[in-house]
Design brief:
By secondary structure, the chain is α+β, with helices and mostly antiparallel strands. The chain has one domain: Beta Barrel (OB fold (Dihydrolipoamide Acetyltransferase, E2P)), CATH 2.40.50.100. 26% of the residues lie in helices and 35% in strands. The strands form 3 sheets. The protein has a 6-stranded antiparallel beta sheet. Strands 6-8-9 form a 3-stranded antiparallel beta sheet. It has a two-stranded antiparallel sheet with strand order 1-2. The chain starts with a strand and ends in a 6-residue tail after the last helix.
Length: 149
Amino acid sequence: MKQIGNYLIDTELYYDPKNHFWLQPNGDFIRIGFNPLLQETSGSFVAILFENIDKELSKGETFGSVEAEKHVAQLILPVSGKIIVVNDLVLTNPRWMNTDPYGKGWLVELESTNFENEKNDLLSGEKQIEQWIRSEIKKYEDKGWIARP
């Protein structure tokens, strides 16, 4: 974990810069969750719904929706695969996504079908991730979505 601004960011993972997911590959299986910056700018999560479980999905397809204090959004799959596990903890207590995004607050696990090709669209490596997070923090501060220190 690395402190970037006010956020602890796991720089060992992959990140989807468009939808603010982190991805943790383990062989053909990938665990997916939200990064801490998204959870702060969204407010407290109050509900999550998963759909298309156990179906073969392509990158960019919807796998559910999430409701937070500040918005409602579709969950867009960052890589292709079949969702095989959903995190029951976030279904019963969505605030785990806010309080423990890399631990108990993960969303789903999928069996990937094209990760080797699709990982090139993701961010990885400490330097690349840090630059991205810092630019997102500045963008969000400029828009007034997060308070400046």
